[in-house]
C-alpha cells in the first residue's frame, strides 16, 4: 500500500501466474478482509480488483487482467534470485569473498 487507506480500486501485481492458485488466494484474501462497500460505507473497502503480471502461463486457472507476455507452452521461468534460494550461507559467503 502506498497510502493509509487501501482504496476502492486495487491493482494486484505479481511476477507471474503459473497455476493461478497464489493469485486467486490473494484475491480471496483481499475480498474477505476488504469486502465491497455499500454506497456510504467505509472508504477502505474494495469495489474493484484488477490483476497484472509479467508472465501469464497457459496452464493458469486464472487469467490476469493485464500481462506483458503470454506463454502458451508454460515454460519454466528462471528468476534472477533463484541461485540464492538453493545456496547455503557458506557458498554465498565464498562467492562474495571472491568479489
In summary, what is this structure?
By secondary structure, the chain is an alpha/beta fold. The chain has helices at 21-33, 82-85, 89-97, and strands at residues 9-17, 48-57, 66-71. The protein has one domain: 3-Layer(aba) Sandwich (Rossmann fold), CATH 3.40.50.
What do you see in this structure?
Helix content is 26%, strand content 25%. The model has no long low-confidence stretch (mean pLDDT 86). By secondary structure, it is an alpha/beta fold. Helix 1 links the parallel strand 1 and strand 2. The longest helix is centred in the N-terminal third of the chain and has 13 residues, at 21-33. The chain has a three-stranded parallel beta sheet, covered by helices on one side. It has helices spanning 21-33, 82-85, 89-97; strands spanning 9-17, 48-57, 66-71.
Which terms summarize this structure?
alpha/beta, three-stranded parallel sheet, 3 helices, 26% helix
CATH topology: Rossmann fold
Low-confidence stretches: none
Shape: extended
Q: What's the CATH architecture?
A: 3-Layer(aba) Sandwich
Distance between the termini: 36 Å
Query: In oligomeric terms, what are we looking at?
Result: single chain
Helix content: 25-40%
| Structure annotation, total helices | 3
β-strand amount? 25-35%
**What is the number of domains?**
1
Overall pLDDT = 86
CATH class: Alpha Beta
Largest sheet: 3 strands, parallel
Compute the number of strand runs. Answer: 3
Strand order in the largest sheet: 1-2-3
Rounded Rg: 18 Å
Q: Structural class of the secondary structure composition?
A: alpha/beta
SSE pattern, N- to C-terminal: EHEEHH
Amino acid at each position: 500500500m502506498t497510502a493509509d487507506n487501501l482504496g476502492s480500486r486495487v491493482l494486484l501485481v505479481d511476477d507471474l501466474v503459473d497455476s493461478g492458485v497464489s493469485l486467486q488466494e490473494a484475491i480471496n484474501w483481499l475480498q474477505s478482509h476488504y469486502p465491497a462497500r455499500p454506497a456510504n460505507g467505509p472508504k477502505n473497502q474494495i469495489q474493484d480488483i484488477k490483476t497484472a503480471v509479467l508472465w501469464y502461463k497457459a496452464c493458469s486457472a486464472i487469467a490476469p487482467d493485464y500481462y506483458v507476455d503470454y506463454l502458451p507452452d508454460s515454460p519454466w521461468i528462471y528468476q534472477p534470485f533463484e541461485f540464492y534460494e538453493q545456496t547455503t550461507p557458506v557458498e554465498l559467503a565464498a562467492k562474495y569473498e571472491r568479489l
